[in-house]
Write a structure and sequence with these properties.
The complex is a heterodimer of chains A (about 290) and B (about 375). With about 290 residues, chain A is an alpha/beta fold. Helix content of chain A is about 35%, strand content about 20%. In chain A, the strands form two sheets. Chain A has a seven-stranded mixed β-sheet with strand order 3-4-2-1-5-6-7, sandwiched between helices. In chain A, strand 6, helix 4 and strand 7 form a beta-alpha-beta unit. The radius of gyration of chain A is 18 Å and the shape is globular. Chain B has 13 helices and 18 strands. Classes of the chains: A alpha/beta (about 290), B alpha+beta (about 375).
Chain lengths: ~290, ~375
């Protein structure tokens, strides 16, 4: 079993004709993801690579092809508009890959998305992959293996590093979810942990956090209160200086709460096994399973 | 992006925030002329991106134009927390009866802008937060409706009892909210918001930080960036599209992805080394970016060895390998290089590097151990 996506997931690609959108649509299709439609305003009626129908609007695409997931590769200047459009068409899962969306735009997106009852993942995230079933986003398929470990992370390449460790040591993944590195992300760790806890195909969860904000502390609280499955945690940025934005807009230490030390302490208190380094993920899983 | 106080005042005045008059100067003679025009005591304020300017001697009161020029002579050209003072702001001195704090930030928890006030103004708000948190009051604003009048009034009543002052403070808060969205701010502070003995409210200092992601659609604000207020290597990195932060150690790091870059720095420390920098070359791997990254890292004389840690996803390892070969041809590297590549086009990358007499590792721990040993040798 998987969380959020599965082999039946019907994906709509917003920005399908762009440089990133077209590249990653081909990657998703060759992985076996069911891409049912694309949207690029002004290109309606064409077909992407001769197969996938392109529409001018999300509403048109939804009417004809009934997708249940939208993935957004639209550049930052228009990405907020793409989220509003997908939520307005009631696409139940929206994944925004785009990096560089202004934070104040997200303050307006959030109530709109909540009111319509749809789930948004991201922005500034690598998306998700259920190995062997569906890949929605940009996580490289070749490093993943089907299996029973859930992965949830604020990062991109660091997640790939840890997935790679898992796959090469015989730990396949049920689903890997990248939730995004921005200060405002729509889906935090907790809904992912909740879904992994409920998923009969997941035995343990790897939670990858970083400096900035307090999402990791809240996740630790959730793990302590409700989770029965083992959780292995990592926090990037032990050596980061306070007050400096470390690449991700959300990765900035302001106050004790945002520091690696504060997050690691919260993990340990919640019974999460903490990795000192990415390679520790395998021995810690072996110990807990 | 941080703005200087004088720039923040100019922008905020457009939204009707009532700053007292003021003028910017770069020489003591200009300061003297401005002080003559204001005809009374003035305050000279260093314009640098550093907190604690007053304690560092960057803010001085002058009774007359001669004293103003003398203060300016001492302040201009000095360094405050590493930054050279190139400009001062000259404002008429205001008699102060009380000082409050009014600020606005984007709060991650409530995913909305939050208005923060405190009657303990004039000092760093972090100090108030840690020492007397009960003196800080905050309210989250729903962006669908904006700052509602009763919210502004409730917070203004935490600062003032006089109805005219409450109205004036509420008005300033409304203008701050309008400016916050209009300017694409991530932080806006008026500290202190002073009262005079006659009861007038006077904003005496402003701090404004613009979300970097807003700059592409606000070229007018992007143009306010002061190149002198930025570290030279960090400016080069920004222009090359790299994310770079200089640190104190001896192991130069060049990594793709912010999370992996932080984890690499942490692993350097884990194996007993000290990272010299944070550097994220980003998702798409143009060989030219690799050249720029190596230029920036090697410009730091403290760097004794350099580590490349690339996990190819969107980034293609062969692009990075080509960049390394090209850069080392152009730069004649004086320190050893350790290269770790894995993922997309790894085989091609190893072939390119082997032909150029480099060796590449595939394991992150092996690579970090080796670079730490080389930096210590």
């Amino acid at each position: 079993m998987t969380i959020f996506v599965n082999a039946d997931t019907r994906v709509l690609v917003q920005g399908i004709t762009g440089r990133d959108g077209s590249f990653h649509t081909r990657q998703m299709m060759s992985y076996g993801t069911r891409i049912v439609a694309g949207v690029t305003p002004g290109r309606g009626g064409e077909r992407f690579d001769g197969t996938v129908p392109i529409y001018d609007t999300v509403a048109d695409a939804v009417r004809d092809t009934s997708p249940n997931t939208a993935v957004i590769y639209v550049p930052a200047a228009n990405a907020t508009s793409a989220i509003f459009e997908a939520a307005d068409a009631r696409v139940s899962l929206i994944i925004c890959i785009t990096e560089g969306i202004p934070v104040l735009d997200m303050t307006r997106v959030m109530p709109f998305v909540r009111e319509r009852g749809v789930r948004l993942i991201g922005p500034n995230c690598p998306g998700l992959i259920a190995p062997g079933a569906s890949k929605v986003g940009i996580i490289p398929g070749n490093i993943c293996r089907p299996g029973r470990i859930g992965v949830v992370s604020r990062s991109g390449t660091l997640t790939y590093e840890i997935i790679h460790q898992l796959s090469t040591h015989g730990f396949g993944q049920s689903t890997c979810v990248g939730i995004g590195g921005d200060p405002i992300i729509a889906t935090s760790f907790i809904p992912c942990l909740e879904a992994f806890e409920a998923d009969s195909g997941t035995d343990a969860v790897v939670l990858i956090g970083e400096i900035g904000g307090s999402d990791e502390q809240q996740a630790a609280g959730f793990v302590q209160r409700t989770m029965t499955k083992p959780v292995i945690g990592f926090i990037a940025g032990r050596t980061a200086p306070p007050g400096r934005r470390m690449g991700h807009a959300g990765a900035i230490i302001s106050g004790v709460e945002g520091s690696a030390g504060g997050k690691i302490a919260a993990f340990e208190q919640a019974g999460i096994s903490v990795m000192q380094r990415p390679a520790d993920v395998v021995p810690l899983l072996e110990e807990r399973l | 992006m941080n703005l200087h106080e004088y720039q923040a005042r100019e922008l905020l005045e457009r939204y009707g925030i009532p700053f007292p008059s003021g003028a910017v100067a770069t020489t003591p003679d200009e300061v003297r002329a401005i002080a003559q025009r204001f005809a009374g005591p003035v305050v000279i304020k260093a314009q640098v991106h550093a907190g604690g300017r007053g304690k560092a001697g960057g803010i001085k009161l002058a009774r007359d134009p001669a004293e103003a020029a003398a203060h300016a002579g001492r302040i201009l050209g000095t360094t405050i927390k590493g930054w050279t003072v190139q400009r001062v702001l000259v404002v008429p001195a205001v008699e102060i009866a009380s000082e409050s704090y009014v600020g606005m930030i984007v709060d991650r928890g409530s995913q909305s802008p939050v208005l923060v006030v405190s009657p303990a103004g004039g000092i760093d708000i972090e100090e108030v937060a840690s020492g007397t948190p009960e003196r800080i009051h905050r309210i989250a604003i729903d962006p669908r409706y904006g700052l509602l009048p009763h919210q502004a009034t409730a917070l203004a009543l935490r600062l003032y009892r006089d109805p005219a002052q409450v109205r004036a403070a509420g008005d300033i808060m409304q203008r701050m909210y309008a400016a916050f969205y209009a300017l694409g701010a991530s932080l806006l502070e008026i500290n202190p918001l002073a009262t005079t003995p006659q009861g007038a409210l006077v904003p005496l200092d402003a701090k404004l930080v613009i979300d970097d992601n807003e700059l592409a659609r606000r070229p007018e604000i992007a143009a306010l960036r002061d190149p002198a207020a930025e570290d030279a290597s960090e400016r080069l990195a920004r222009e090359a599209g790299l994310s770079f932060i200089k640190l104190e150690g001896s192991v130069g790091c060049c990594v793709n992805g912010a999370g992996l870059a932080m984890a690499t720095m942490d692993l350097v420390k884990f194996y007993g080394g000290q990272p010299a920098n944070f550097l994220d070359i980003g998702g798409s791997s143009n060989p030219q970016k690799v050249v720029a990254a190596l230029q920036i890292i090697t410009a730091d004389p403290a760097v004794k060895a350099i580590l490349f840690n690339i996990f190819g996803g969107i980034t293609r390892c062969d692009d990075v390998a080509n960049g390394i070969v090209q850069a080392t041809r152009e730069l004649s590297l004086k320190v050893p290089l350790v290269i770790r590549l894995t993922g997309t086009n790894e085989v091609e990358a190893v072939a390119i590097l082997t032909a150029a007499r480099f060796s590449a590792l595939t394991d992150m721990d092996d690579a970090v151990r080796r670079v730490v040993a080389l930096a210590a040798a």
